[in-house]
Amino acid sequence: MTSTIEPEAGPEIGKARRRKEDERLITGRTRWTDNLTLPGMLHLAVLRSPFAHAKIVSIDVAGAKSAPGVVAVFTGKDLDPESAIGMPCAWPITPDMKSPRRPILASDTVNFAGEGVAVVVARTPAEAHDALEAIDVEYDELPVVLGLENALAEGAPLVHEELGTNQNAVWVFDSADAGTGSSVEDAISNAEVVVKRRFRQQRLIPAFMEPRACVVDPTGSQLVMWSATQVPHILKTMTAATLGLPEHKVRVIAPDVGGGFGGKIAVLPEEMMSTLIARRLGKPVKWTETRSETMVAAHHGRDQIQDLTITANRDGTVTGLKVELLADMGAYLGLVGPGVPILGAFMFNAIYKFPAYHFACTNVFTNTTLTDAYRGAGRPEATFGIERIMDELAVELGMDPMELREKNWINHEEFPFTTVAGLTYDSGNYEAATAKAKELFDYDGLRREQKERRESGDPVQLGIGISTFTEMCGLAPSRVLGSLDYAAGGWEHAEIRVLPTGKIEVITGASAHGQGHETAWSQIVADKLGVPFEDIEVLHGDTQSSHKGMDTYGSRSLVVGGIAVINAADKVLAKAKPIAAHLMECSEDDLEFEAGAFSVKGTDSSTSIQDIAWAVFSAHNLPDGVEPSLDSADTFDPENFSFPHGTHLCAAEVDTETGRVRLRSYVCVDDVGVAVNPLIVEGQVHGGLAQGIAQALFEEAVHDEGGTLTTGTFADYLLPSAADLPEFTTDRTETPSTTNPLGAKGVGEAGTIASTPAVVNAVIDAVRHFGVNDIEMPLTPMRVWHAIRHGSTSAGGLGSEAGGGLGSIDASGGAQ
């Protein structure tokens, strides 16, 4: 456990500093979007369809218009002329991808339960919500299609009749065609061992602490939008493009944001709706969703069926991997939703040396809430698939699952290593991380205990789960994104302003929503410029002060945005050096910079960065031709992804009489390269572990036959509390990245990516002797109990069960 004691003197990078942001965030003494109150502000409430698929016959808003406090009521037909192009999708993964227009409010047909059909504008939130009950909508229900295979079946109802199909796109990567490996079909034909499995990635809901919200003020020279978003810069550009507004007249501000996990990466219909209504009425408006709206109308995550085939020789050497995915897009396409499974395409091969690989993904429309990025975005799904099937292969071969992994992974002396998927991993040491994890976990001792319990017929069986993973972080080199047909780049921008008194302002395009950027960026700049940590202010989230940026997602903030900060700091020093030489009447070649001061080599003559800042401000004595400014900016485009990795080990106890799962211990050793702040790293890992374990044991979004979300509250959609999770043992190894000057690799998604297969592998390992080789997630007591008595639960086996719900509540009162 990393100490939280304030650090001593010395370099800032590597110190476990408490975060600058925490006091205001923890106490709530800050500005959230819903805290904002503007003069004359009106409030919006959205009426949402109770049906998953229906024609809108008529909408009668007369009763709502006459309700107390109501200023206006709008339907889709009222707003449609001003939003003709519909909501944006930035990732057309194939030239023939089907991209149905998503209206801001449905006007003809609703395609999922929760789609907005009307909006009330009133003087208070309560009056707006009360007036929704006075709107009378007549629907003509249409057939509903749910489930990936059902949607692709011949004669299935169509989500969008005009498309003529529920198939959105098919994307294929083949190592033989790409020249990165041999034919997987040849590998299957010639294999000594072939293992096939189907895995289900259930649908999840990004349950962020702060619901989505936006405030739009049209009354100034610029239209100003405040939004609880991860992507203020993208939102600004997309708002201008979607609504036909001049971009320089749009300003977007993301104040402090209470979590996102990918769930706030979207450009929302409600943001566009609020903008249109604010402009129409000429008054500020606010929309804040209720928690129940979050569950049905914010985007969902995951929702895949994975068919995997792995081939190997009898000695355990893997020879090929074939992956066939079905991915549920929901009723519409999200901002990056079609590309989420594609990110996983490059990670199914993971840390292993496969000579042959084939990946094919079919994206499918269903009458459900759309899916988009959720913490890890494609990489948790891929890691789950490969780590699960590696365990299945180990069983088929009669090998210890760790031994199988060690036989096939990339050895540390083989880096840099180009994988069968075409990525070049720059550095890593899987052996070191695994050795440390096994020691902390007591792997051999737990295996002995497991054997003893098995032989004694103990009703509580012990299972050991392994997840040795890597991921690609730092989204992303712009040329790579271009090759995948993504609409934007992956660069990031930063500026450093040196104030007259030597204090520093850092402006970053990577807008935080809880990651600790203000602290980490201050530590980086403190070391680079030699100024005190306390003398640095980090500004972000406002497209007027931070005019360029690609925002925060994909574990990119530090390894892309942080490098832009470093480069900007280097430019500050480059500007300061000739001024320092002029002030000390020496040659630039005679200067060295250390601890915040330029000094003349071999002498005690020096001048601090603060002295130079004042000299620049006064501009009384500068070299000829030198501008009076140290301010500098940089836009950094990474040359490669970064590749953190780690070994996660889970010991799970399974009560074979009740199906109850208890996580007895969890050890993870992650390699995230150089850690700027170990305390922040540990917090990111802990949060990620909680979300990954939640997928394994607790969470699932479930719809009934009519497409209604039956897990639409936290009474039904089960989130774990701290009491439901074990105490984590975390540690790190360090192999610096070679593709950025900091050596960092990214950490925001690691825990989520690695933990789900570790937990599921542990539970399967505990009950495999009952003939169980899979249990569909979440592994609720009912599903585990059913599998012990009747065999595996696989995709479709118990898919209608309501996510475990109350079935996961232990008799002691805690969710287990």
From TrEMBL:
Q: Does the keyword Transcription regulation apply?
A: no
- Record field: transmembrane: none
Entries under InterPro entries matching the protein: Ald_Oxase/Xan_DH_a/b, Ald_Oxase/Xan_DH_a/b_sf, Ald_Oxase/xanthine_DH-like, AldOxase/xan_DH_MoCoBD1, AldOxase/xan_DH_MoCoBD2, AldOxase/xan_DH_Mopterin-bd_sf
Where are the annotated segments for Disordered?
A: 1-21, 729-748, 795-816
Cofactors? Mo-molybdopterin cytosine dinucleotide
SUPFAM superfamilies on file: CO dehydrogenase molybdoprotein N-domain-like, Molybdenum cofactor-binding domain
Superkingdom of the source species: Bacteria
Record's keyword annotation contains Oxidoreductase: yes
Q: Which Gene3D superfamilies match?
A: Aldehyde oxidase/xanthine dehydrogenase, a/b hammerhead, Aldehyde oxidase/xanthine dehydrogenase, molybdopterin binding domain
GO molecular function terms noted in the UniProt entry: iron ion binding; oxidoreductase activity
Q: Which residues form the Aldehyde oxidase/xanthine dehydrogenase a/b hammerhead domain?
A: 27-143
State the UniProt keywords alphabetically: Molybdenum, Oxidoreductase
Q: Gly residues: which segments have biased composition?
A: 795-807
- Protein name (database record): Carbon monoxide dehydrogenase
* Source species of the chain: Amycolatopsis regifaucium
